[in-house]
Amino acid sequence: MTVPDPAPDSASALAPPTDPARLVADLVTLLRLEQIDADRFIGQSEDIGTPRVFGGQVLGQSLMAACRTVGADRPVHSLHAYFLLPGDKNESIDYLVDRVRDGRSFTTRRVVAQQKGRTIFTMMASFQTVEPGAFSHQLTMPEAPAPETLVSDAELRRALGNRAPAGMNDKFLLERPIEFRTVDPPDLLTPELRPAEALVWMRALTELPDDPALHCALLAYASDHGLLRAALLPHGLSFMQGRLRPASLDHAMWFHRDFRLDDWLLYAIDSPSGGGARGLCRGEIFSRDGRLVASVAQEGMLRVVDAGTPVG
């Protein structure tokens, strides 16, 4: 698709950073955490333009903390998390790992994320020894145009030019370490009504270290980008309209097969239900060769702040 030139005097005309490797290296550093003792880790926060700590950051950091207490021979296969309080992106986050169980085949970890003594997030994660299965099956990957034929979501945001809402944080318009390319993207300000489903390609901008746990933590981070927007599509709403108060409530992931996030992955998302100021969204993540590598589910709060009727 053709992207219009942004207005030269707009904040949207900001050029993307010229060093993708630095963006990716900074994200890797963000997720690797500082280890205080065997079961305690400290994480810093990034500013991606959201008012509070980005939920995907806390997901990724919590998973990395859990992984650091489990041997590499037991990769993570699932996580279930709750976002309890909004995080302050100007404060570090304390991650406390509880070694709930170390079984013969499965290991369970509980992670509590705290700021200023208050719990903002909890997660349970399960790990399993690698073993052959008696059977294997998966959903078929949806048909989608190649990512090389699509425009990045960052370009679409910058192309708004002087149509961008006043007060939009410039950081929201910059390139990110993980690139997203949406198939048939809706208009960011006046989206038409459409079914509650979308296809999004994603990958890291540059090559990543050969660390499977890091790739899982990065995928958890990336999975929180744009998942809730599927619930907005049937209502002609967009996060960029300034009409919504969104917040992630919980997040679950299942890791099925090996993958690399520096290769293109297709994120097929949908929203089976919306109502009560909440939207439920799901995602299936496929490698480019069609393997189902992970599944995601999240419920989020979605309140319309300038209308009497909530989404749903």
Helix content: 10-25%
Mean pLDDT: 89
C-alpha Rg (nearest Å): 19 Å
Give the strand tally. 12
**Major sheet size, sense and barrel closure:** 12 strands, antiparallel
Q: What is the second-level CATH architecture of the largest domain?
A: Roll
- Give, in spatial order, the strands making up the sheet with the most strands: 1-2-4-5-6-3-9-12-11-10-8-7
- What CATH calls the topology of the largest domain is Thiol Ester Dehydrase, Chain A
* Number of helical stretches of at least 4 residues: 4
Q: Domains counted in the coordinates: how many?
A: 2
Beta-strand portion reads: 25-35%
Question: Under the CATH scheme, which class of the largest domain?
Answer: Alpha Beta
Question: How would you name the CATH homologous superfamily of the largest domain?
Answer: Hotdog Thioesterase
Q: What is the H/E order?
A: HEEHEEEEHEEHEEEE
Structure in words:
By secondary structure, the chain is α+β, with helices and mostly antiparallel strands. It has two domains: 1-19 and 150-312, Hotdog Thioesterase (Thiol Ester Dehydrase, Chain A); 33-130, Roll (Thiol Ester Dehydrase, Chain A), CATH 3.10.129. It has four helices and twelve strands; from the N terminus they run H-E-E-H-E-E-E-E-H-E-E-H-E-E-E-E. It has a twelve-stranded antiparallel sheet, with helices on one face. Strand 1 and strand 2 (40-43) form a beta hairpin. Helix 2 runs antiparallel to helix 4 (212-223). The two termini are 31 Å apart. The relative contact order is 0.16. Residues 1-17 have low confidence and may be disordered.
